[in-house]
Design a protein that fits this description.
Chain lengths: 423, 302
């Protein structure tokens, strides 16, 4: 009897171990793609704003009601979205539908299906069309909205101190100095985060356009044919250092997190920050009396005018190896419908990428008053090779920490630019 | 006439033979092979390529990644940090772990509560521990600054200081896992026969003499286990660094694992990250083998 129990226990243990080791292996999707059997599509998005996520889920459930054979399994991984998708790309197992957040051609291009025959392609805005279409006419994704980024500012504070929206860098610094002095140094006008160093990258990115691209004589061609004189990047380093050394940046810049920002805006401790428009909802949740606005990045001298950085913001692309091509295209068509685009534009705050959609959202007044402001494609997506973003962010933080000088910033930008361009 | 009875090997005998035990190793070998050995050799392979971590294509570049790694000035900082995290954590965890074990070894109710409280931090995720301590060290509104502001009116940003932040992280890691060392030493202490202590007391030995001549030698196996475990865990430190400082400012508080993560995902340099991984493997192996051999020798000589 004892021997029998021992044998059974041993066999069970062996079975458990073997089965648990097999559970780790991914199961292959072997279901047929016949339209009659219920189909589940996997959808990934990097949207972190909860209200926006709920709108997407709402549109998805409406889609499921109208298309009973298709179910949408949506995942919002949050800040680890890009890393998770990199791992999925490496194993060539992408979600059926996913957000390309600005990198449809440069990073995800080889994994995306051509969408050029979709009905909404003809409605694409003239500024977004060249961003999501390549020279051969392949359309890489459906843009759910269009980026129009500059610097977000605390309208309530600017009004309180009677300052007009700055149009040049000198006016911007002067406005910051005025507020800093008037508050006896209590208010540090600029907010940057060293831990979430994408914030440093974001400020550098939107300011790089006025610094190098938007003026009449600019370095656009030099950057594209790789003959750019990188000592010109010293201006960027000097700009950041000027803000830091004059006490115009939050004192805990090296250790602050991006999640600290809404509270600082709401408490009137921050005036300017280059970040996403979704921060407005978080600020309203703390103090609904505080008003935020978005201004285009100011020009570096008075002969030039301010500019927005534009391109993809949230998008939906289809994996080229998906087993459910028709179903995925149906989903994208549904998201492109007028009423859904209006819902997205209202909650996402960025303008729609399709023509004929206009809603009254938080920043609409600022977009309307900047109707004629030029929109340039994001600097790093056009002029810098893939992989430079981390260089900009990390070395920007090192500069603010006093670990490197402006000239070091420029020389590391140059060496990484050269190294990554030839990969 | 006596017949020689030849015992034929029946199936039952074959199943009961010692050799069959080896079949029970098979599941473990499969697991080891799949999750330890295969990734290790794949890592070595990747370290000789320029793979970016997500494309389907890559090129072999020989020793370029290793050359780039050793030429990087941040590497020296990161290796130094890793050794501080490893050796520093081990030191604090073992000194305080032994102290707690000696303090709380008697079986009283109060001691049981004390032991629970000392061990409690070890059960939560190190990532969460980092977030909890961030609220203490936060510049704006952190508990530490609230106290300092009461007395001196100024605020301090310890996590931004490149000298202090590594030791703060070491301290928090030690705080979290000191309970683990304590448990190991408690078990070791319980194995020391009381007779030795009684004999020593009769001979007039002081507390320190009893501690140094009886407790420490008899604890030699426990010390080996605790030190080697803590060392390996400390050298691999990742979560608490990530949640407190993200390795920053710059790379000043990065350990080899956090730098490897950032190289792979943020810098899209999978080949370089793999070479760093191999370096980490070599360092941890050398340190662990030296520690293990050293302590085992002490055990035997005791």
């Amino acid at each position: 009897m004892k021997k029998g129990i021992r044998l059974i226990t041993a066999l069970t243990a062996a079975l458990m171990v073997t089965s648990s080791s097999l559970m780790g292996c991914s199961s292959s999707k072997s279901s047929s793609s016949s339209t009659s059997s219920p189909v589940t599509l996997s959808m990934y998005s990097n949207i972190t704003d909860v209200a926006f996520q709920n709108t997407i889920k709402e549109i998805a459930s409406n889609f499921e009601k109208e298309n009973t054979g298709i179910k949408l399994d949506i995942t919002f991984p949050g800040s680890e979205y890009e890393n998770i998708l990199k791992v999925k790309m490496a194993s060539n197992e992408m979600p059926d539908i996913f957000d390309t957040h600005g990198w449809a051609q440069l990073r995800y291009g080889n994994y995306l299906m051509d969408l050029k025959d979709s009905s909404w392609v003809s409605k694409l805005d003239s500024t977004i069309k060249p961003v999501v279409t390549d020279s051969k006419g392949k359309v890489y994704c459906l843009p759910l909205n269009e980026a129009k980024d500059g610097i977000i500012y605390n309208k309530t504070l600017l009004n309180k101190y009677g300052i007009a929206v700055p149009k040049t860098v000198d006016e911007l610094v002067a406005a910051a100095e005025k507020i800093s002095k008037a508050s006896n140094g209590q208010i540090k006008p600029f907010f940057l985060s060293g831990v979430d160093n994408w914030m440093v990258g974001q400020l550098v990115d939107v300011m790089a356009t006025p610094m190098l691209i938007s003026a009449k004589t600019n370095s656009a061609d030099a950057l594209l044919n790789k003959s750019f004189d990188w000592s010109k990047w010293n201006t960027m380093g000097d700009f950041l250092l000027k803000l830091k050394n004059e006490g115009l940046v939050n004192e805990d810049v090296l250790t602050a997190k991006s999640t600290d920002l809404p509270k600082r805006f709401a408490e009137g401790k921050t005036v300017f920050c280059a970040t996403m428009l979704s921060v407005a909802d978080d600020v309203k949740a703390i103090d609904s009396s505080v008003e935020l606005g978005v201004m285009p990045a100011p020009a570096f001298d008075s002969t030039d005018t301010p500019s927005f950085s534009g391109g993809e913001r949230q998008t939906l692309g289809v994996w080229k190896d998906t087993k459910y091509k028709e179903q995925c295209l149906k989903v994208l068509d549904y998201f492109a419908k007028q009423e859904n685009q209006e819902k997205i534009a209202t909650v996402g705050k960025y303008p729609s990428a399709l023509t004929g959609i206009s809603v009254a959202s938080t920043f609409q007044k600022d977009f309307d008053s900047n109707k004629d402001t030029r929109v340039f494609a994001y600097f790093d997506r056009v002029y810098l090779p893939n992989g430079m973003w981390d260089v900009i962010c990390k070395n920007g933080v090192k500069l603010l920490a006093g670990q490197i000088k402006s000239s070091d910033y420029s020389s590391v930008m140059k060496s990484e630019f050269t190294r990554l361009s030839t990969k | 006439m006596s017949e020689k009875y030849i015992h034929k090997k029946t199936l039952k005998d074959k199943l009961n033979s010692p050799g069959m035990l080896n079949i029970l190793y098979v599941p473990v070998l499969i697991l080891f092979g799949t999750f330890l050995i295969y990734p290790f050799f794949k890592g070595i392979q990747v370290s000789f390529t320029n793979w970016d971590g997500y494309s389907q294509i890559f090129k072999y570049v020989g020793f370029q990644n290793y050359k780039q790694m050793f030429a990087d000035s941040d590497i020296v900082t990161v290796i130094y940090n890793t050794i501080v995290y490893g050796v520093g954590s081990t030191l604090f965890q073992n000194i305080f772990g032994l102290a707690f074990a000696l303090l709380l070894c008697r079986q009283t109710k109060l001691n049981a509560v004390g032991r629970t409280f000392v061990y409690l931090p070890a059960i939560i995720s190190p990532l969460i521990m980092g977030y909890i301590w961030y609220f203490i060290f936060q510049y704006d509104g952190g508990a530490l600054n609230d106290i300092i502001k009461l007395f001196s009116g100024s605020q301090t940003n310890l996590l931004a200081s490149t000298k202090a932040n590594v030791w703060i992280i070491t301290g928090i890691n030690s705080f979290q896992f000191v309970g683990v060392s304590m448990v190991i030493y408690l078990a070791g202490l319980q194995n020391i026969p009381h007779d030795y202590y009684e004999a020593a007391e009769i001979d007039g030995a002081s507390y320190w003499q009893r501690f140094l001549n009886i407790t420490v030698p008899m604890l030699a196996p426990s010390i080996t286990v605790a030190v080697v475990l803590n060392l390996i865990g400390g050298l691999k430190l990742f979560d608490v660094i990530w949640s407190l400082t993200n390795g920053g400012p710059g790379y000043s508080s990065c350990s080899l694992s956090t730098m490897m993560y950032q190289l792979y995902f943020a810098k899209q340099e999978a080949g370089l990250a793999a070479s760093l991984g191999i370096l980490m493997f070599v360092i941890i192996t050398i340190v662990s083998v030296i520690a293990l051999a050293g302590f085992r020798k002490r055990e035997i000589s005791q």
